[in-house]
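protein under study:
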Amino acid sequence: MAFILTFLGKGGVGCSTVAIAAAKKFASEGSRVLLVGQDPSPAWGLPLGIEPSSEPQSIGANLSAVQIMTVAALENGWEEVKSIEAKYLRSPTLKNVYGQELGILPGMDGAVALKQIWDYDKSGNYDVIVYDGDGDLNTLRLLGTPEIGSWYVRRFREVFKQSDLGRAISPFVQPVTSAILNVSWTMDTFGDEPTNEANQILDEGKKVIADPAKFAAYLVTNGSAASIAKAKYLWGSAQQVNVTIGGVVFNQSDNSDALGDNFAPLSISTLPKANEGDWETLQSNLPDFKQAITAPKPLIIDSSARQVKVFLPTFDKKQVKLTQYGTEITIEAGDQRRNILLPPPLKGAPVKGAKFQDQYLIISL
């Protein structure tokens, strides 16, 4: 399994430059590296001297690059969707809908990018994957897809079973599914196999995102007040999708004093201004990205102490909303909402209190 790395920051601060330098650094150290670009235009490949391509192309020793071409990726992915339908439905309905017909809807680019990254990871061809995405809140929503998606699956499956419609069709589930599907379900098992299969895929994604030894994001900023404010906002928001922020890259500066204590306790690395094409200077000043494992974890659940600790830097109690519906805790912050599924020892326990301490929201159960 590859180590996946991405960068977050305000547009124009140099996230793409840092991503390229990071990819080159890993490759120079002997790792097999794939640099993935979200931008499908020729502009992305100019610093690399390559033409757009939806297939990985070698650009140096141990280093390949690829651009996400949503149209081509969606076409290939559609065939997988059709194969899944055919697995369960005796008379598939999507067989006459072709991937070459599909248009791109808002949000598809991110979903396609995530699937492409997982596929490259599973290929076993790479030790490091550097993802050069938009670097903003949309990237965080993309990375939160496994966790949010798994919540939708488990929540609405249960809602449907308990609904009047669910109870009304309960006696007919077994005969109807036997007639039209390749499986036979009762109401108790209705949809369990496909949703469990989906949840398994989502759970694998959640585990990767939550493990800083496998996935990490770094903030990129410069000395402007706007870029620092945006980086701080993204730092706090990243915790809501369980992404570990490993540190800060202060670009085009020799002195990080301008950042003050805005990002404590994160490590800060400074990148000096370099001439175009001088990648060696940038590489030599980059941090050890795999040290993200030492950064604060977004979520800590301590069953013995009956506590849930959520790392929410840059937010105060006025900006955080804590609610509890059923067996899960919901936290709203930074235009993000997160549902925390409690482990069996704490499942269903009511919230007794909450406080902020050392940038953590500590919830007592």
Notes: The domain at 3-73+100-148+204-294 is CATH 3.40.50.300 (Rossmann fold). The chain has two domains: 3-73+100-148+204-294, 299-364. The radius of gyration is 23 Å. Residues 70-88 form the longest helix (19 residues).
